[in-house]
Amino acid sequence: MHPPLTLHKLPMCAEIIEEFQKCHIDHPIGKFFGECTDLKIKLDRCFREEKALKRKANFEQSKKLKERLQAFRKETAEENNLVQS
Fold first, then answer.
1. Which residues contact 43 (CB under 8 A, 6 or more apart)?
2. Cα 32 from Cα 24, distance rounded (Å)
């Protein structure tokens, strides 16, 4: 099973998606008997690669946000200590 094949959401795999969809149109019966299996395997690999890149980017963004949050908390704690003194 694969996600919906929308080109704007999966730009890295757009070429393979188009080939896969064309294969399904060209082989309406053959698609059930493995005619498009090679393209499906390529598509699955592409999805995995794209997901790994997105996961890495999200992790980096998360680390930056966490660092900003810790810096903000530290500043807030220091300000509270100065006000209380």
1. 2, 13, 16, 17, 20
2. 9
